[in-house]
Amino acid sequence: MAILRVSELYEKLRPDLRNLERERKRVALLLRMNMFVVVALAIPIAWYIIRSIEEPNEINQILSFTFAIIAMIGILAGETFKYNLTKQFGTRFKRLVIRRIISYMDADLHYAMHNCIPAEVFQQSGLFETPPDRFNGDDLVTGTILGTKIRFSELHTKINLGSATNKRYVTQFKGLFFELAFNKRSNGSLIILPDAVETAVGKVAGQWLQSLGTTQGKLIKLEDPEFERLFVVYGTDQIEARYLLSPSLMRRIIKFRHKAGREVRLSFVDGHVYLAVSYARDLFEPTLFTPLENKAQIKQYLDDLRFALGVVKDLNLNLKLWSH
Question: In this structure, are strands 231-235 and 218-220 parallel, antiparallel, or unpaired?
Fold first, then answer.
């Protein structure tokens, strides 16, 4: 993987960034105009509807209904215009900037901006007990790093906490999701989750609650105090779990968690490692209301990709002595 300096990368991208910046300004202006038109339509229509409620008669009711339909059509048209405009610009930006950054870092990697990790792979990982009700993603990267096959993408999954008729969707996971080949073969599964329970209710009560078990397996106790504080581990086999989670791997996972500075989940299933790293923001989208000719923003894209592509090295998943 090539080592790129931000200044070097910025100069490589500068001609395209200059063209994209002109396009960004045009898109931002159109979005502001779109918002102004929607608001300009909505305010008088809302005022008339309120007035017709205060002075009800047949004509006012008909006009109120008509204006309400016009308002809904206007809002829908405005949102459709906004979606298409931002998607077109985002596609062009990713083709000219994100794809090129990835290519500069490793020419053998493949980038598919509109694809993502499949839903069945997300489920196979065992990192989330509840199947998602909504599943979206993009920015799929595939390839081989240090001899290890890897693919990752952004994912955003949601679950319905309401009823079938009154749905209330909340985020289940938003961030980077990885699938990596693993040298250690296993017959069962090993799931490593953030230890939110012990943090919330204390060590003794937390361990008791964790010991009740889940569909993800039986509670696995380990000897590393810091690892136990950060994570809770479930597995199908105590002996195999200790074989997979060697002291050195636990230290690497701890170090990786500190480097990420955010919630991390891992699992070992059928010769694969699955890794979910939570983010509150979208990682590889263009900024529409701030300049693109911005070294700090290019540095952010580069840092995010360095983090993602550094997973194999950070966890040392290509270590040959792990294979049987």
Answer: antiparallel
Burial class (CB in 10 A: 0-12, 13-18, 19+), 301: buried
Of 221, 226, 314, give the one whose Cα is nearest residue 275.
314
pLDDT in tens, 257-300: 999 999 999 999 988 999 999 999 999 999 899 999 999 999 99
Q: How far is CA 233 from CA 160, 312, 315, in A?
A: 26, 21, 17
Residues 109, 39: Cα–Cα separation, whole Å: 45
Tokens of 99: 């794809």
The neighbour count for residue 100, using CB atoms within 10 Å, is 16
Pick the closest to residue 90 from 313, 310, 283, 302 (CA basis).
Answer: 283
pLDDT over 70 percentage in the chain:
86
Q: Tell me the sheet residues that pair with 156.
A: 136, 174
Query: Residues 6 or more apart from 230 whose CB is under 8 A from it?
Result: 194, 195, 254, 257
Q: What's the pLDDT score for residue 209?
A: 43
Triad 159, 195, 313: Cα angle to 5°: 95
**Which 3 state secondary structure label does DSSP give 76?**
helix
Query: Which residue reads 């053998």 in tokens?
Result: 108
d(CA 10, CA 103): 14
Q: What distance lies between CA 245 and its chain's CA centroid?
A: 26
Ordered DSSP codes for 139-184: EEEEEEETTEEEEEEEEEEEEE-S-SSS--EEEEEEEEEEEEE-SS
Mean pLDDT of the chain: 86
Q: Enter the tokens of residue 129.
A: 């007990």
What type of residue is 42? Answer: A
DSSP conformational letter for 188: S
Considering the entire predicted model, what is its pTM?
0.85
